Amino acid sequence: MSGRTHEETGQTIAFVLLDRFSMNAFASVIEPLRIANRLLGREYYAWTTYSLDGNSVIASNGCEVAVKKSIRELHDADITLLCTGIDVERLPLNPDLGNKLRRLNAMGRTFGAICTGAYLLARYNLLDGRRCTIHWENLRSLREEFPDVEVTSDIFAIDRNCITCAGGMASLDMILRLIAIQHGAYLAHEVAEVALYQNMRSGEICSAS
Fold first, then answer.
1. For residue 51, what are the β-bridge partners?
2. pLDDT tens digits for 150-197?
């Protein structure tokens, strides 16, 4: 990378799709990025989809989604998000994915998760001393299993270079907040209007617990 700032060069985003991920949460993140690019008149946000082995992934709704690359090819990204869904507790830990995430964290890159992905981040020991959130159905188990992690019932949480959200439409709120941080509230509201999303929520609005 050159010495230019991300305002000039844009942002690269890695979506790691894992078995039975939430299509709703995934679409609620990627579509606002597409809309933001159109409103900006350039491809500020560029994303790549990954799976553990480079093969397609089955979402929780049964749809099969092709990806571009395997995580072996994930070397750098400004933002890396784990996309998970139901039965996240049953997903085996992949050592290569854990190593990639720890390396990105050490590089100061932003990482995080949507829906239930915070559970995997905790298992990879990436959330100790951090504030995070997860889908409300998983709140109690995450708090009990990882007492050193500050688990909030807010719809999304941004703690330094770690971002998490509770999934569903909360994914849209989280990405709108990131767009506002990088481009200002006006663009975030424009994106929301194009998406016919009328009431942008702050992360401090709690879901069921």
1. 70
2. 999 999 999 999 999 999 999 999 999 999 999 999 999 999 999 998
Half-sphere exposure of 105 (CA within 13 A, CB side): 20
The one-letter code for the residue type at 74 is L
- Please name the residue ranges forming H helices in the chain: 6-9, 23-40, 95-106, 118-123, 139-145, 170-183, 185-194
3-state secondary structure 100-148: HHHHHHHCCCEEEEECCCHHHHHHCCCCCCCEEECCHHHHHHHHHHCCC
DSSP state of 196: T
What angle in degrees, to the nearest 10, is found between the helix axes of 170-183 and 185-194?
140
- Angle at Cα 47 formed by Cα 174 and Cα 111, nearest 5°? 50
- 12-to-49, 88, 139 alpha-carbon distances in Å: 11, 26, 30
- Strands 162-165 and 156-159 come out as antiparallel
Write b or e for each residue in 37-47: b if 16 or more Cβ atoms lie within 10 A of its Cβ, otherwise e: bebbeeebbeb
- Kindly report the backbone phi and psi dihedral angles of residue 46, in degrees, each rounded to the nearest multiple of 5, phi listed first: -120, 130
Confirm if 79 and 46 have CB atoms less than 8 A apart.
Answer: no
pTM, whole model, 2 decimals?
0.91
Closest CA to 154 of 165, 168, 162, 144: 165
CA 156 to each of CA 2, 41, 67, 134: distance values in angstroms, whole numbers, following the listed order? 32, 28, 26, 8
